[in-house]
Design goal:
The protein has three domains: 5-148 and 155-169 and 218-272, HUPs (Rossmann fold, 3-Layer(aba) Sandwich), CATH 3.40.50.620; 283-310 and 319-405, no CATH class; 423-469. 42% of the residues lie in helices and 15% in strands. The longest helix has 22 residues, at 322-343. It is built from 15 helices and 15 strands. Strand 6 and strand 7 (152-155) form a beta hairpin. The protein starts with a strand and ends with a strand. It is α/β, with parallel strands linked by helices. It has helices spanning 44-58, 85-93, 97-114, 130-142, 171-177, 221-231, 245-260, 292-297, 302-310, 322-343, 354-369, 374-386, 391-405, 423-437, 441-453; strands at residues 5-8, 13-16, 24-29, 62-69, 122-125, 146-149, 152-155, 192-197, 215-217, 235-241, 266-272, 275-276, 318-319, 456-461, 464-469. The strands form five sheets. Strands 5-4-3-10-11 form a five-stranded parallel beta sheet, with helices on both faces. It binds one RNA strand through helix 5, helix 7, strand 13, helix 10 and helix 12.
RNA sequence: GGCCCGGUGGGUGAAUGGCUCAGCCAGCGGACUGCAAAUCCGUUCAUGCGGGUUCGAUUCCCGCCCGGGCCUCCA
């Protein structure tokens, strides 16, 4: 049996995972910013984090998983200036920032659940942890890592020699041509705000008092403050999308290591690559991003998206298209068919089957332990589903694999199996049945063709004729 | 401009310094079916281009081209 190995962004290597505290893994995942819906690409980090959590659990570890919810303060520009997205979304919707945040938080939590993600032990909101953020900024100030300008309190990145290390930044190259002028007084382009002063004359819904004046926290601070609060000054794993490496996580590390005097602050950094939405990024209605409900509206159950996700490795970009969703739906449906059949039988596999069972079980979990290699695990899964195993063996293995897959193999029935009811269609189906009984196949086929033309598919089974709407 | 991923069959997507380069979907053939559908079985098709290292490269190195992403610049 192999050991759990995870790819660490800091060292750019796969490393054997050993929790700092034996038997207990502490994980922090960068969560959503809740001023807009999370599109299906935004969901990938949570699917990935879920695979990580399930892998840790499968190792027999206790897992404390913390996910933050950013309900304040991101600016429209990635510079330190610009309009605040949360405030803007609120203004546009005629609601308060808190209402907007609550709405999108709920939507995100619901999507997570529908995708089969295990709940986090802690969901923490930035606005509930202003005091912790101020405290960390104060620590940094006391230790001489900050400077104050008209705009706010800034972190002086030149005081942190390791600043460029994590993301392997070329600061000299970046600085050479950079204009520092976005925010007057910034000493280095990569310096970032710890606390921003409320702009004079602007009515903000989200501002707080601080030792430096009324304002709001810089947007990297929340993750440092909250992760440390819930997981301690030195914890195991921090996850997020690759887009966070260069700026957000680099800044988190700078703040945290300087404020806490630790290194490394986090043992393993893990980042998921992006979903390539290609031309599907925007659906017809302009500006509307593709969300999970859009897939559902097209007839794809949320777990089909999970199945789709499992077909690629989390560190590879994955190409999204509706054709691929349809293909995933097909595979998922077949897989569930096998699972449903297998879990209906009792008994134990024959002793003679034991070797084959343990071999494929090992292949599955070895793939999981090798940096969460889902495609390889799926390969083993299909060897079980399609292979010569007895139903008892299939049941045992599928239920075992389900602990990591989260595909509903123990509970779900194939999508589209539930028989709909529609008086007109039911009548046509009945008429066709009568025609077939009378061996009037011309009439029977005509009815089938007519239904097919309006997107209704007919399936004759031992239990009778079923129909369903085609995707 | 800097940095980071990647270019494998019709689609997607694993793996690998040599042994028949996974799996899923599609296609094709077969079973089943009145015919289909669904399901099952079988099966065709692939390593972007040019150099280098090597006995041997899809795999390692360099260059090029192409796609995606992050940051910056410009506007």
């Amino acid at each position: 049996m192999s050991a759990l190995v995870l790819f660490d962004t800091r060292t750019r290597r796969k490393q054997r995972f050993e929790p700092i505290e034996p038997g207990h893994a502490r994980v922090y995942s960068c969560g959503p910013t809740v001023y807009a819906p999370q599109h299906i690409g935004n969901l990938r980090p949570y699917l990935f984090a879920d695979l990580l959590k399930r892998a840790l659990l499968a190792e027999g570890l206790r897992v404390t998983h913390v996910i933050n919810i950013t309900d304040v303060g991101h600016l429209t520009s990635d510079a330190d200036a610009g309009e605040d997205k949360m405030e803007r979304a609120a203004a546009q919707a005629g609601k308060t920032a808190a209402e907007i945040a609550a709405f999108y938080t709920e939507q995100w939590l619901r999507d997570r659940r529908r995708l089969g993600c295990l709940e986090a032990e802690v969901y923490c909101k930035a606005t509930d942890h202003i005091a912790e953020q101020i405290e960390m900024a104060q620590r940094l100030e006391e230790r001489g890592y900050t400077y104050r300008i008209e705009d706010g309190l800034y972190f002086d990145t030149s005081k942190f020699p390791r600043y460029a290390e994590f993301a392997r930044l070329d600061l000299a190259g970046q600085e050479a041509g950079a204009r520092i002028g976005d925010v007057a007084g910034k000493r280095h382009p990569q310096d970032f705000a710890l606390w921003k002063f409320a702009p004079p004359g602007v009515e903000r819904q989200q501002e707080w008092d601080s030792p430096w004046g009324r304002g709001f926290p810089g947007w990297h601070l929340e993750c440092s403050a909250m992760s440390v609060k819930y997981l301690g000054a030195h914890f195991d794993i921090h996850t997020g999308g690759v887009d966070h490496i260069a700026v957000h996580h680099t800044n988190e590390i700078a703040q945290s290591e300087c404020a806490l005097g630790v290194h490394p602050w986090v043992e393993v950094w893990m980042h998921n690559e992006f979903l390539d939405l290609g031309g599907e990024k925007l659906s017809k209605s302009k500006g509307h991003t593709l969300v999970l409900d859009d897939l559902v509206a097209r007839g794809f159950e949320p777990l089909v998206y999970r199945y789709f996700f499992l077909q690629a490795h989390y560190r590879q970009q994955q190409a999204f298209s509706f054709d691929e969703m349809a293909s995933a739906a097909k595979g998922y449906r077949r897989l569930l068919g096998v699972a449903v059949a297998a879990r209906g039988v009792g008994g134990e596999p024959d002793a003679g089957e034991r070797d084959a069972i343990e071999k494929v079980r090992g292949e599955f979990w070895d793939a999981v332990r090798d940096d969460l290699n889902a495609p390889r695990a799926m390969e083993a899964l299909w060897r079980v589903a399609r292979g010569d195993f007895s139903d008892a063996a299939k049941r045992e293995l599928l239920l075992d694999f389900e602990r990591w897959l989260g595909l509903g193999l123990a509970t779900e029935t194939p999508p589209g199996d539930a028989q709909e009811s529609d008086p007109r269609i039911d009548a046509l189906v009945a008429e066709r049945r009568a025609a077939r009984a009378a061996r009037d196949f011309a009439r029977a086929d005509a009815i089938r063709d007519a239904l097919k033309a309006e997107g209704i598919e007919i399936e004759d089974t031992k239990e009778g004729t079923k129909w369903r709407r085609a995707r």
